[in-house]
Amino acid sequence: MKTRLLIADDHPIVREGFKQVLSETADMVVADEASNGQEVLGLVKKKNYDVVLLDISMPGRSGLEILKEVKTDYPGLPVLIVSIYPEEQYAVRAFRAGASGYLTKASAPTELIAAIRKVSSGGRYISSSLAERLTYYLDTDAQKDPHELLSDREYQVMVMMASGKTVKEIADDLCLSVKTISTYRTHIFQKMKVKNTAEVTLYAVQHKLVG
């Protein structure tokens, strides 16, 4: 029996890359593809999959929001996050939301296949460096850094701001209004106790949240 996969990424070239890697693996088959969160939700309601490969950064609703909804309706369906963002940016949030594993798109094909096999058998795929970080962040008594107080969407906007994107660019990327992004920015400034984007950028660099 082959492991049936749903690949969710808004870039066709990325989906093709995954399919090429997985086509060389006899025990896996890409059953369907999705280019946004709504397609993911529609497909998992209609069909059965063994593993969902999900990107965090997609138009409209973020991958983390979709992950939470999938896990609410189908708690037994393993979701493996595959993202351009390094572990230190999003992995902890992904696991809190119910992910079974977290990989960066820069990972080797062999690591992708190993991760799929691990999560499809009911396990979790966590790198050793991430395991240490998870122990710290999931400790409810640990003192939380300011960026840990942000909602998932606020955090996503904060990382994009710190990477040099303007409010309009962020709005375009996330398919949201400029007004909505401006509201997020205000909340970010309040929660992180900073006055402007330059201070956000400095904070993000110091905490290794941006490259």
Instruction: Give the domain tally.
Output: 2
Biggest beta-sheet profile: 5 strands, parallel
Note the quaternary state here: single chain
Distance between the termini: 41 Å
pLDDT averaged residue by residue: 90
- Class by SSE composition: alpha/beta
Low-confidence stretches: none
Task: Tell me the CATH superfamily of the largest domain.
Answer: Response regulator
Give me the number of helical elements. Answer: 10
Rg calc: 17 Å
Strand content: 5-15%
Give the proportion of residues in helices. 40-55%
> How do the helices and strands follow one another from N- to C-terminus?
EHEHEHEHEHHHHHH
Number of strands: 5
- Which CATH class of the largest domain is shown? Alpha Beta
Strand order of the largest sheet: 2-1-3-4-5
CATH 2nd-level architecture of the largest domain: 3-Layer(aba) Sandwich
Global shape = globular
Q: Which fold does the CATH topology of the largest domain refer to? A: Rossmann fold
Task: Kindly describe this structure.
The protein folds into two domains: 135 residues, Rossmann fold, CATH 3.40.50; 61 residues, Orthogonal Bundle (Arc Repressor Mutant, subunit A). The longest helix is centred in the last third of the chain and has 15 residues. The mean pLDDT is 90. Helix 3 links the parallel strand 3 and strand 4. The protein has a five-stranded parallel beta sheet with strand order 2-1-3-4-5, sandwiched between helices. Helix 7 packs across helix 9 and helix 8 crosses helix 9. The chain starts with a strand and ends in a 5-residue tail after the last helix. With 211 residues, it is an alpha/beta fold.
